[in-house]
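Work Package 4 report. The design task specified in the project plan requires that, given a folded chain encoded as structure tokens, an amino acid be chosen for each position. We show below one input record used in the internal validation round.
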């Protein structure tokens, strides 16, 4: 089969493993799910050992199922979800389940950080708002509430770093995941000892910093026996899933922007220098000396997944008859409803909201329901609400002087023509869709390819692997309608934001 690259994507609902050839063609792919735990209000956890179990099973199954020679796999890249707090001891044992990005238990610790150091100071150093979803408050929560775990912690790892460790027995911290720590200087690319000291946290708890394409180590004999991989296969540090997805969408030059249509929503704008906005997220790209100004929302493709699970029985039955997907049926139904959904507005705050609201109490809302409205109205308004949230982040980026042109759309929702057209009309921007289903794993594979020398540069990798499948232009009439709808969305959001109950 020639030279191959293995990518591992640790996502919110499951892990996707994909093997690519050097031209970006999918040779093999498998997805396996794992459990998410909700032990208490605001607590959202996953067990890293569950991640590792599905990874070993998935790799083994791919190699045997598709008759892949492990010697052909020249490198392994990993991406993972943000803000996962994983404490390990000196033997590499996980000391507690990971608090993932949806976990918001550390509200008290976030407030204490603002009082102890000052939010303005923390934002100026880290480039990010102080919110309970970030890693720093979670570390402090462990210190306050589970001291027996905190005191035994040797290192705090990120999701991709944990998988790298399991593959290689080597610890690492890539730059793209550092934005979760408020004692990381986003301008200098180094830890701020003074801020860490004020927060009562030691830099010794952090792993060595590495670029995302740096080789951390290689597959151990133990892992080779469990997976079928070849001993010594190089493993790079990898990075944040959104950043790898941005790379896999071909967004590597300043001003280019990725629109995320996965479980969560948002956007990532590539920058040649750090630009801080207190309501947005700033982190390093997986490319050296590049940054991403990001907007991350809780409501993305997951909103329609929820709607389908709870109300989509008719669409599921029709999909079964056709041998299709219920999401194809829902897209067809949404297309029959006019732009604006006959005055229904959906606020997609299904698990609180991240940027630019940063409100853990925010709730999802359908506004404007009446007896003449149908399920199709609700489906389209769900799509529109996600598009409004995207536009809210793009408009916020404007406040920092960052202008965005064409968007590159990836994730499951990019497969829906009607949903992607809605986003083009709401944002009044051209949207390009690359091969969206594998953008994140492709980004991780590119990191491995650059790391082991298969690609001489990131530009060469993009030129070889990224192709645009479809382009959407904004419809002038729909743009006018959505301008008014978006204004109503903002009005409702501002009206309700202080009224949400816990």
């Amino acid at each position: 089969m020639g030279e191959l690259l293995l990518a591992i994507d640790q996502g919110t609902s499951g892990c996707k493993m994909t093997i690519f050839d050097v031209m970006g063609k999918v040779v093999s792919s498998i997805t396996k799910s794992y459990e998410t735990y909700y032990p208490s209000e605001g607590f959202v956890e996953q067990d890293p050992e569950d991640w590792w179990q599905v990874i070993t099973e998935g790799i083994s199954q791919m190699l045997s199922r598709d008759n892949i020679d492990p010697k052909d796999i020249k490198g392994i890249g990993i991406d993972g979800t943000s803000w996962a707090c994983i404490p390990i001891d000196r033997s590499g044992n996980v000391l507690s389940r990971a608090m993932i990005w949806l976990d918001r238990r550390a509200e008290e610790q976030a407030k204490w950080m603002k009082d102890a150091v000052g939010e303005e100071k923390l934002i100026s150093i880290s480039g990010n708002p102080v919110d309970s979803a970030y890693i720093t408050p979670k570390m402090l929560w462990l210190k306050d509430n589970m001291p027996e775990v905190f005191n035994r912690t040797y290192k705090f790892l990120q999701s991709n770093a944990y998988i790298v460790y399991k593959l290689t027995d080597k610890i690492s911290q890539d730059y793209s995941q550092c934005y979760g720590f408020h004692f990381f200087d986003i301008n200098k690319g180094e830890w701020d000892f003074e801020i860490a000291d004020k927060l009562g946290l030691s830099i010794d708890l952090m792993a060595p910093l590495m670029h995302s394409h740096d080789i951390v180590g290689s597959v151990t004999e133990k892992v080779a026996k469990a997976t079928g991989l070849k001993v010594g296969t190089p493993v790079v540090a990898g990075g944040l899933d959104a950043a790898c997805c941005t790379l896999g969408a071909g967004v590597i030059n300043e001003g280019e922007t990725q629109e995320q249509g996965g479980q969560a929503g948002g956007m990532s704008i590539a920058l040649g220098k750090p630009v801080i906005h207190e309501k947005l997220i700033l982190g390093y790209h997986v490319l050296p000396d590049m940054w991403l100004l990001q907007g991350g929302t809780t409501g993305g493709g997951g909103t329609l997944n929820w709607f389908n699970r709870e109300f989509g029985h008719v669409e599921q039955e029709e999909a079964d008859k056709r041998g299709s997907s219920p999401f194809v049926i829902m897209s067809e139904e949404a297309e029959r409803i006019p732009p604006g959904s006959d005055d229904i507005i959906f606020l997609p705050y299904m698990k609180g909201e991240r940027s630019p609201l940063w409100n853990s109490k925010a709730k999802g809302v359908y506004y404007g329901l009446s007896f003449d409205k149908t399920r199709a109205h609700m489906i389209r308004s769900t799509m529109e609400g996600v598009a409004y949230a995207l536009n809210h982040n793009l408009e916020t980026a404007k406040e920092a002087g960052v202008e965005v042109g064409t968007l590159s759309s990836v994730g499951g929702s990019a497969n829906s023509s009607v949903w992607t057209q809605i986003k083009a009309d709401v944002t009044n921007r051209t949207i390009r869709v690359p091969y969206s289903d594998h953008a994140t794993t492709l980004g991780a594979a590119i990191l491995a390819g650059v790391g082991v020398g298969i690609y001489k540069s990131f530009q060469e990798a993009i030129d070889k692997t990224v192709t645009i499948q479809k382009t959407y232009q904004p419809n002038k009439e729909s743009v006018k309608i959505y301008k008014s709808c978006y204004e109503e969305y903002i009005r409702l959001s501002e009206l309700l934001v202080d009224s949400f109950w816990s």
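The chain has 17 helices and 24 strands. Validation will be extended to a larger panel in the next phase.
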